[in-house]
Specification:
Blueprint (H helix, E strand, L loop, with lengths): L4 H17 L2 H10 L4 H7 L2 H19 L2 H9 L4 H13 L2 H22 L3 H20 L1 H17 L5 H18 L8 H10 L3 H27 L17 H16 L4 H17 L9 H18 L3 H9 L3 H12 L4 H9 L6 H13 L11 H8 L10 H21 L1
Length: 420
């Protein structure tokens, strides 16, 4: 296996960054014990900072062992479209009119089901948020669906006193369902997007091979979570009492949302739309709330760091994939997804020549099934965690508890993809 000093050093730094994501809670505790340097410890305790921080270390490392010009050239050859798209879609999808529109749809559905089933509205809203919103990810992209679902769950669940099981169980189901919910089309899920054009996968192909299995897994995960936690859910007394937003304002926001989604691969256009959107919300502030610029910037920083660090991991990832059978590829990609972004993993898999259709399906299936196990497993995960993190103990999401919470819905996704 041939590798350069740059690649070897990059893999060591990447490993340290992955370990750092599991230790953010410890940095937060250091901040309380050492008030003098609390700012630094809080910074290192922000999970969104981790990969951006270690990406900077990598660039310094490249500059030291080679030349500053090499470090600049490496950065200039990276594609940052995905981090910037997630940044843009989070801001638009997290705006007040979009959230109001989404909540009204779910509230209307819950009212109908409440009369039919003669039960409380909170469990129904909880189920619909975990079941319907992830499927919307196949239309409006996974980052947008994650943002919507996280805000809805924040108001329905996380703003109240929650048990640790409810906190991490809900988050685990959300991340897994979002990861597999974007597989009904060929453009919405980052790991699918990376291979769709190379392998000639159409939306019809995706729906035929993943659609039914994903829908069943999402429904089962949402239903099990609802049955387990229904007694802990509090009725949303103010869910439908916010001031009405004019239809014209909602329509304008939806146009911006679909515009950003439509031009998701054209960085200049969707960033222009984002700036136009920010200007629009500033000019007409009456029905707006503060845009989530800070959260979106942190997530974009995280994903950009992952792009910088992940690009140099091909020397060990690609040979590992080449020696696997389709069954081994499924479980191997599922395991590797937990320590590297699933989009980067499927991209590297698409570079392997002469692979069978079974190999390709197994690679993508494993990558999306494992997309909820860690923060870095799927690109939209940091977006949801950034919105919900303040409601967790110490303001930090434990990587261990997240893994435990995501494991049961991941097993359901595995069963759906392997047995159906």
């Amino acid at each position: 296996m041939n590798f350069t000093a740059t690649e070897f050093g990059a893999s060591i730094i990447f490993t340290i960054a992955v370990l750092h994501t599991f230790c953010t809670g410890y940095f937060e505790s250091f901040a309380k014990k050492s008030p003098r340097h609390a700012g630094l410890w809080h910074l290192l305790g922000e999970v969104e900072i981790v990969f951006g921080f270690w990406a900077a270390v990598l660039i310094i490392y490249i500059a030291c062992i080679d030349h500053i010009g090499s470090a600049k050239a490496y950065l200039n050859h990276r594609n940052f479209t995905e981090p910037l798209f997630v940044f843009a879609i989070m801001i638009v999808a997290g705006s007040k009119p979009i959230l109001y529109f989404s909540s009204q749809i779910l509230y209307g559905l819950s009212k109908g089901l409440q009369k039919l089933l003669r039960t409380c509205s909170a469990p129904i809203l909880y189920f619909l948020t975990l079941a319907i919103t992830p499927l919307l990810g196949s239309l409006i992209t996974e980052p947008a669906a994650m943002t919507l679902a996280a805000f809805l769950l924040r108001d329905l669940v996380y703003c109240h006193q929650c048990s640790k099981a409810l906190l991490f169980g809900t988050l685990g189901v959300l991340l897994v369902n979002i990861s597999i919910g974007g597989t009904l089309t060929n453009f919405a899920a980052p790991p699918v997007l990376m291979v769709a054009s190379t392998w000639g996968w159409s939306t019809a192909f995706m729906f035929a091979n993943f659609g039914l299995e994903s829908c069943i897994a999402i429904f089962i995960n949402a239903l099990i979570a609802t049955c387990l936690f229904q007694r802990q859910l509090i009725e949303p007394s103010e869910f439908n009492q916010s001031s009405k937003i004019p239809l014209a304002v909602i329509a304008m926001h939806l146009l911006f949302l679909f515009g950003v989604v439509m031009f998701a691969h054209d960085l200049i256009i969707f960033m222009w739309l984002l700036l136009f959107f920010i200007g629009y919300t500033t000019a007409y502030p009456k029905h707006q709330s503060p845009l989530i610029l800070k959260e979106a910037l942190l997530v974009g920083f995280f994903l950009a760091g992952l792009v910088v660090l992940g690009a140099l991991q091909g020397w060990w990832l690609q040979p590992l994939l080449e020696m696997m059978s389709p069954t081994a590829v499924f479980y191997g990609s599922l395991a590797l997804t937990a320590i590297t972004d699933n989009a980067a993993l499927t991209y590297l898999g698409s570079l392997v020549t002469g692979t069978s259709p079974e190999f390709k399906l197994a690679l993508v299936g494993g990558a999306v099934a494992g997309g909820g196990l860690t923060v870095i497993a799927n690109a939209p995960n940091p977006a949801g965690i950034a919105i919900l993190r303040s409601h967790f103990p110490g303001g930090a999401v434990s990587a261990v508890y997240l893994f435990v919470g995501a494991l049961p819905p991941t097993l359901v996704a595995i069963a759906a993809y392997r047995l159906l």
